[in-house]
Design brief:
Elements (H helix, E strand, L loop, with lengths): L3 E4 L8 E6 L9 H12 L3 E5 L16 H18 L3 E7 L1 H12 L3 E7 L6 H8 L4 H7 L1 E5 L5 E5 L1 H6 L4 H5 L6 E6 L7 H8 L5 E6 L9 H18 L1
Parallel strand pairs: 2-3, 2-4, 4-5, 5-8, 8-9
Antiparallel strand pairs: 1-3, 6-7
Length: 240
């Protein structure tokens, strides 16, 4: 069971709706998405922000999370919205939610737009291991590691996460995406190398990359955060 919040300011299901896909260990209640929801709703654009498996209020054990599970979660969200009568559906994906969104966009023709905030495009398993200060060999031998969440919690994560990640190729998926796409990334991102976004933007035929100078992964400076939020919201509004 997944938990989500649907906000439809006009009760018009013929208009656009954006699914907001959060990052690793965060939730649907991230400050970015609460702010984005308010901006988009103010322009008559509906939103659906939800918690991935084992995040926020959704069910599941965190140790069992994989990118494939996150992809299934987004596909289920799309299916849910279509059953409600929505047809013009877009995705916003942050970091971990970014690579899941890229994979989904390559698998379905039910989307009209894609916006990515500091997305992981490749080697998420390695990035997680590096942040956890663990060797992949040790991860495999022990069967799990402990990952420190954004709020300081130590969360057990099984090696199946790394095995699943090896099957996921964001760059190959990007080649199949034809819809308008925007990537926003800071050039001082300490978690996800900006080189990944520079590479993947060249593989999506209808995309652009906006680089925010000096911005870290969380857009900690208020001016960087507002710039990021402005770029994403303006892109969605313009293309809706």
């Amino acid at each position: 069971r997944l938990c989500g919040i649907l906000a439809n300011p006009t009760s018009n299901k013929n208009g656009p709706i954006m699914i907001l896909c959060h990052g690793f260990t965060t939730s649907k209640d991230s400050y970015t998405y609460i702010r984005l929801e308010k901006i988009l709703n103010g322009k008559g654009i509906s939103t659906f922000r939800f918690d991935f498996f084992a995040h926020g209020e959704s069910e599941g054990e965190f140790e069992d999370i994989t990118i494939s599970e996150a992809v299934d979660d987004i596909l289920n969200a799309i299916r849910f919205l279509k059953e409600l009568g929505y047809s013009k559906i877009g995705l916003v994906g942050s970091s971990f939610g970014g690579i899941a969104s890229v994979i989904v966009a390559s698998k379905t023709d039910h989307l009209f737009i894609l916006a990515l905030k500091s997305p992981v495009s490749d080697d998420l398993g390695k990035l997680v291991a590096q942040e956890s200060k663990q060797e992949i060999k040790t991860w495999k031998e022990k069967g799990s590691i402990y990952y420190t969440s954004s709020d300081g919690r130590g969360l057990k994560l099984n090696y199946s996460f790394f095995e699943d990640d090896k099957k996921v190729n964001g760059y190959e998926a990007a080649k199949k995406i034809k819809i308008p796409a925007l990537i926003v990334h800071g050039d001082n991102d300490e978690s996800v190398p900006i080189e990944q976004s520079k590479k993947i933007v060249g593989l999506m035929e209808n995309s652009r990359l906006e680089i925010i100078e000096g911005a870290d992964h969380r857009y900690s400076k208020p001016e960087d955060f507002e710039r990021m939020l402005g770029l994403i919201s303006e892109f969605i509004i313009k293309n809706s």
